[in-house]
Design brief:
three-stranded antiparallel beta sheet; 49% helix; alpha+beta; 3 strands; flat
């Protein structure tokens, strides 16, 4: 019987797709760094076309991410919004 995945821990980093599949009993947030939405235009430019929905989700799953508390996630989101 395979071991169950370890729960997410604060400040853990990794691809979004891997982190998002793990148990999250503490209700932590997974933030993509940099925000995936800001990287998507560059990915599409490199490929030379718009990505399909499935391709977007595949790329999103590879996005570098960090696990933070909900409070830290709110502060980071507000800071990101202020820069736009």
């Amino acid at each position: 019987m395979p071991a169950s995945p370890e729960p997410l821990r604060e400040n853990e980093v990794g691809p979004f797709g891997e982190l998002s599949k793990r148990p999250n009993p503490a209700g932590l947030a997974i933030l993509q760094v940099p925000p995936f939405e800001s990287m998507l235009p560059f990915i599409e430019q490199q490929i030379g076309r718009r990505l399909s929905k499935d391709e977007v989700e595949t790329e999103r799953s590879k996005a570098p991410s960090i696990v933070v508390t909900q409070e830290v996630a709110r502060k980071m989101s507000a800071a990101r919004a202020a820069r736009q």
